């Protein structure tokens, strides 16, 4: 297809305190006594006040999700096997947390009905059967995972999402009050995932009015929150949640660019997490995104954020080569950023110099 | 529910020329030899070049829709009866046109599976059964009907939509090239439906960050197109289509205001169409929306639009009373615009004076 036919999430509820409506939203989705399974970010493990607000019924279960590492296909398969062994069938999977928890909720929701290993479905449109009911409740803003049709997984041979129309959530709940206790550093890195995404897509060569309108709004909200606001407040949580949503929607007809392509190399070799990895790289990209990087540096300064430096110091030539190979493998990102002739522009030597600066 | 759980359209395809993908999008929705029915605005009746682009297969049928008057429940029921008599079942209804055609496509799509008359379902959440597959393809921008969960119908006792989650389209196709031949006056009135909606909702007392972000973007796009652009071009068609979509999305958590409340009275008594009716009223609302009306007047001037004047001249007291009764019946609109005490602010006398100015 020339233009992508974009699958939307089924339902959106937005509002400060809308989490209290979870029970009534889930009620019509319950199938007999098959339980609802709540995947909850380990951040909430020791927060009984929050956990007690999850409306458990019958055999419903809370599964605390370890997010030390980004989601793996083995982790997805094990979660699925455990749920199958314990319950046979489930009514649905509700992911409450950051991007990793949401991606796991999507992946396990799909694997409850699709046979084999999740690694079999890493790619585009390989999932053939609808999963169980899936809901995403972000507790940190910026990833856009709430509206995407993918769930990024590290598999035996590659890091790649299960991209399909079945992957998109049936329901998302956007309650900005859930994000109010996120530590400032983590909040910043994740918000910058959205900001950097917008800069890259708006300056890219792939773009149309649909994605542009979403991307511009998301970027404008990020700038208002991080450059103009005097202090963090409910309004900031509300706007950042909308920025994340709009940034996610903008991906429909756009693509990311240099920061993402370079940071995938860091993630692969060093396990650097997505949000902070993008910040580490973007900080050095003045020549590609002069206006965006200037604003980024102003935000970093205003919010007293420490961007890690010298993380590639002491790496071997072989290690640099690994990162370069991974990064140059992301052809669509480079083409979006630099045009058809990107291979002439971003040579291995130039990319090596860039990695050395990080 | 405190916060509305907003049903999204199933799929969105956006792009200049995306209409050429209609055949492949419909293919998986065909059920045996049951036809796809294309409701086409009478504007295209004598445009064979356009009609021949509709990908007819088997028993598929084009039904030219008379849009002289706004949609009626009797019209919906008759279209449904005719289709049932001719085909028994249909695979889907595709509405190609303005807001009236889209509303008819939604209504007939629902009535193919729901018993009785469409008048039985005017209200909120009265539709209990999913309709057939429904798709909306706007050929004029501004109504927002492409994303709404209603279809406004004039019935035996009232003008009211079939508001339900089943009403929302399964698919929308946003191809700005389809709007490029709309006459400038009609385009302006319909675009102002979007602009006025945004002014009313952004200045209203009901609003949250979700609707605000969509409403701001839609208003900004309208201002860019109608105040800044030197001449109409593809970019204007693209942006106006996005403004309409964003304006429609913003209704999720907002409400319209004075112009809509007053123009419903005109529509009821005089049959004034929605787009032009809103313009006639908004033109006189400086005291309620000073900034918005100032911009509106600048757009009117720049585009040489003639806003009808003195349309209520010579009406009887009884006729004024009818309009006033209809208008004051729209309590949520007045409360959104003027707050809880709206009845003290907008007295019958004041509203009569306002109607006399039109």
TrEMBL record, chains A, B:
Domain Fe-containing alcohol dehydrogenase-like C-terminal, first and last residues per copy: 189-291
Domain Alcohol dehydrogenase iron-type/glycerol dehydrogenase GldA, residue spans: 12-176
Keywords, in A-Z order: Oxidoreductase
InterPro entries in UniProt: ADH_Fe/GldA, ADH_Fe_C, Alcohol_dehydrogenase_Fe
Domain of life (superkingdom): Bacteria
Family annotation (SUPFAM superfamilies): Dehydroquinate synthase-like
Record-given protein name: Iron-containing alcohol dehydrogenase family protein
Organism whose genome encodes this protein: Chitinophaga defluvii
Lineage, top ranks: Bacteria, Pseudomonadati, Bacteroidota, Chitinophagia, Chitinophagales
């Amino acid at each position: 297809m020339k233009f992508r036919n974009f699958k939307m999430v089924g339902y959106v509820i937005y509002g400060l305190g809308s989490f209290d409506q979870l029970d009534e939203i889930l009620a019509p989705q319950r199938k007999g006594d098959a339980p609802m399974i709540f995947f909850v970010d380990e951040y909430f493990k020791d927060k009984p006040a929050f956990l007690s607000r999850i409306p458990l019924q019958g055999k419903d279960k809370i599964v605390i999700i370890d997010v030390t590492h980004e989601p793996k296909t083995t982790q997805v398969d094990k979660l699925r096997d455990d749920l199958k062994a314990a319950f046979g069938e489930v009514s649905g999977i509700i992911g409450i947390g950051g991007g990793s928890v949401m991606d796991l909720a999507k992946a396990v929701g799909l694997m409850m009905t699709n046979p084999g290993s999740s690694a079999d479905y890493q790619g585009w449109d390989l999932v053939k059967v609808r999963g169980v009911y899936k809901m995403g409740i972000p507790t940190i803003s910026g990833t856009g995972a709430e509206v995407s049709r993918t769930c990024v997984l590290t598999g035996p041979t590659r890091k790649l999402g299960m991209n399909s129309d079945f992957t998109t959530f049936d329901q998302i709940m956007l309650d900005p009050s859930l994000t109010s206790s996120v530590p400032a550093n983590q909040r910043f890195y994740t918000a910058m995932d959205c900001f950097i995404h917008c800069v890259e897509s708006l300056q890219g060569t792939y773009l149309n009015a649909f994605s542009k309108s979403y991307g511009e709004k998301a970027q404008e909200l990020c700038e208002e929150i991080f450059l103009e606001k005097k202090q963090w407040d409910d309004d900031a949580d509300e706007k950042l949640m909308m920025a994340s949503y709009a940034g996610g929607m903008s991906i429909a007809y756009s693509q990311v660019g240099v920061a993402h392509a370079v940071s995938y190399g860091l993630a692969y070799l060093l396990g650097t997490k997505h949000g902070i990895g993008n910040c580490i790289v973007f900080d050095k990209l003045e020549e590609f995104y002069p206006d965006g990087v200037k604003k980024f540096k102003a935000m970093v300064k205003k919010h007293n954020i420490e961007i890690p430096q010298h993380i590639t110091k002491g790496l071997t030539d072989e290690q640099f080569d690994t990162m370069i190979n991974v990064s140059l493998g992301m052809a669509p990102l480079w083409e979006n950023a630099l045009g058809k002739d990107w291979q002439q522009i971003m040579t291995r030597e130039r990319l090596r110099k860039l990695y050395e600066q990080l």
